[in-house]
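so my prof wants the structure for this chain in the tokens format not the other one, which i didnt know existed until like an hour ago. anyway here's the sequence
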Amino acid sequence: MATAIGLAIMQWQDATQAYDEAVGARLGLNMAERHCLGLLHGGPQSAGAIAAVTGLTPAAVTALIDRLEARGLLTRTRSLDDRRKVVIEATEATRDLSARYYGTIAREGEKLIASFSDAELGTISRFVSAALDLQRDQLARLKAEAG
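here's what i got, hopefully its the right format
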């Protein structure tokens, strides 16, 4: 069973990555740009948060923000709390594209989740959280070895 689950997870990762790459190709977005817009889906972010997610240098993040802003996919405004800080936010155009390419997946995913009992969802949630922690820990270890 563990082998079958591991294989299914690998296939799920590959299918997700392939879909994201196909959407990116259709929209002319590279991986870092897709990661940036994905982060903004959760709400406004700082340039530093975008750098952390994409792994880009501050100068490269500035160029990425410039490109996406020029395409109308994000806005850059001064923070109301601290005028020295810049807040990056997705635009309505980005939300429309997200709904167009990911809305069906979200709706069908909600139906799928509804097909499980609360007890099953609790188990799934614990597994997914633990798997994410494992993956993040391994990424941190790999980065530490390289640095």
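also thought this was worth mentioning. The mean pLDDT is 94.
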